[in-house]
Amino acid sequence: MPRGERKRMMLQVRALRRRVASSLAEMTTANAFRKRLINIGHLMVGNFGAGVIAFFAVAIAARGLGVEKFGVLALVSTFIQAIERFVSFQTWQPIIRFGAGLKEQGRHDDLNAVVKFGFLLDLAAAITGFAIAAGLALFGAERFGWPSEVRNSLLLYSGALLFLITGSPTGVMRLAGRFREIAYFQVIAMTVRCALCAIALAAGAGLFVYVAIWAGTHVLGAILLMATGFRQLGRIGCADFMKSSLNDMSQRFPKIWRFAALANLSLSIRSSAQQLDTLIVGALAGAGGAGLYHIAKRIAKFAQQAGQQVQAVVFPDIARMWARGDIDSFQKDVARTEGLLLLMCGLGAGATFLLADPVISLFAGDKYADAGDMLKVQIIAVAALLAGSVARAALLCMGKELTVFWLSVASTAIFFTTAVYFIPRAGAIGGNYAHAIAGVFIVAALWIAYKAALRSIPSPGFRPGAPSAGLDDGF
User: Fold this and answer.
1) What is the pLDDT of residues 285-301, one digit of tens each?
2) Phi, psi angle pair for 465, to nearest 5°
3) Which domain holds residue 46?
4) Is residue 286 in a domain?
5) pLDDT digits (tens, 9 = 90+) for 440-469
């Protein structure tokens, strides 16, 4: 065979091999994406079911307590949830961010250390949250003129914070791929809440009983998650994680403390808008306005949680892709998931605009009819948060947590500025306007930052290397 012909054949064989390898990689990515869709489906069904059942519980409580008392319940639950968010380190994020690559590499000692690191942060956050909430209830009641009923309700609900060690078991379950269980825990908790609310309504119970129901079912959901999460430790090779050493964590996992601290600060800042908004509405528009506002937010919350859960499904996979330097698959997965999120946003917003008024009037009563308009505005903010969730996850994988933090600061500042302007002029719905404006800003800013981060990748052969590696942060 002539030398030139042989060379052409070798080139053709190499080209064929590249095409086959590319096709296999595409099939693997497609299969992984289909599996992810199944996991997202479980989370969506569970989240939707929990949201519907929770709405019935809220509607029953609203009927049983009336506008003013229900507003107090909303303020108490918001107060406790705000403290929970402020002290939480979102430890599932560092567990996945640093642990996804370790699990693939079989580095079980290091993975054990990361899980222990997350668990101890969870434990410290739970104790700190309880101390803050109980202290404010005991010593702030007189200073702020809270009645004894409110003080006792806060003390009762603050005890729930001791059980909310949920970040590390959530991270373990996500590394183990156990999304189905996560999806349906809240369905169980909300079903119990709804049943107990129906009993309380029939018995003519007062505010304290409904607070006990809210706190108890909050604890129930956390216990189910913890029990199942810690049973999965053996599946990822972390059955003896408490025996691992945390020495030299900063050297073994560069920037892990910064990542955990920024996860806490970012959540605290975002939550100040998501939790303190009801308190601001209560201060500027009264407890009745806070009750209406809470109903609109509670209905929209299931869509917001859906965005968080989509991020939770995507995060482990794209973290692994980034850790092994598979930038092409990383970008494709982010783009595919964003397309899915945009479809969900469109369908959800359309359904809300059509059904908000009749659903609220039917289940909560005509006295809560104004919550329909609030819900229509709030769904715009929720859709924006949902659309930005995958870009947030991608930036965290790329080591751009400081960028995410500063964008959260800017978005929250926009929310508070616009809320203080709109609520005195438009009433409780002004809080929804502020959320919508801040939401549109954050989704645009996250995607601009993500595209900029992609452009800053040094070369086509760039490999982040270790799980803790990433691009230099621009801030």
Assistant:
1) 666 666 667 666 666 66
2) 85, -115
3) 29-455
4) yes
5) 999 999 999 999 999 887 655 555 544 444
